[in-house]
Amino acid sequence: MSDSRRDSFVGKAAIVPLAPAAQNRNNVEYKRSTHHAGIGSTDARPYNCAMAKSAKKKKSASNTIVVNKRARHDYQIDDRFEAGISLMGWEVKSLREKKVQLTDSYVHIQNGEALLFGANIQPLPTASTHYVTEPNRSRKLLLHRRELDKISAAVQQKGYTCICTAIYWKGHLVKCEVALAKGKAEYDKRQSEKKSDWQRQKQRILSHSA
User: Fold this and answer.
1) CATH number of the domain at 64-185, out of 2.40.50.140, 1.10.1840.10, 2.40.280.10, 2.60.40.10?
2) How many CB atoms lie under 10 A from the CB of residue 80?
3) How far apart are CA 77 and CA 180, in angstroms?
4) Beta strands per DSSP E along the chain
5) What phi and psi, each to the nearest 5 degrees, are found at residue 142?
6) d(Cα 130, Cα 155) in Å, to the nearest integer?
7) Are 140 and 86 spatial neighbours (Cβ–Cβ below 8 Å)?
8) Which in 51, 79, 198, 203 has the greatest CB count within 10 A?
9) What's the count of helices (H) and strands (E) in the chain, helices before strands?
10) Which residues contact 150 (CB under 8 A, 6 or more apart)?
11) pLDDT tens figures, 75-124
């Protein structure tokens, strides 16, 4: 065979396509290798997927420290305000453990300042003994001037009561929700109780049927 014919034959042989069976076999092996390597897979998941899920769970956790359930039962709540609250170090530690009650709490405007009375914050056993702890002391609330004026006018002119409805975390700060409210009549209280009972009964029915 001459050199020119041999070169032509080699060129043609180099571009002969693989048989269908060989092509299928090569494709299967390539898919397997890329699947194990995670290449081109739309189902590939990040290595920190579990960490992302745990972070979502932490974010969804409630920031509520305490809710004044009695206030919702005894009062018709209208306007709400978010206030900062002046606390001591031992009180912040107690709030982290939710050692607080708002059952008998109320807000009073005095000398242009809002004071929270009746909120009971119990000191932890590990609280320092270098200072005296007062669980029921009055605590200053931090509100804007226009909010203070609105609350004061509503209490003095319209017969409202200012109450504390909840304490919660907002970032690393403790916040207090205060509200203008009017006392419910006995009939309204009974209606609220019936509604609450029905909600609890409905939840039990749904939990048993699930």
Assistant:
1) 2.40.280.10
2) 12
3) 6
4) 64-67, 75-85, 100-101, 106-110, 113-117, 120-121, 139-142, 161-170, 173-183
5) -105, 110
6) 39
7) yes
8) 79
9) 7, 9
10) 79
11) 899 999 999 999 999 999 999 999 999 988 999 999 999 999 999 999 99
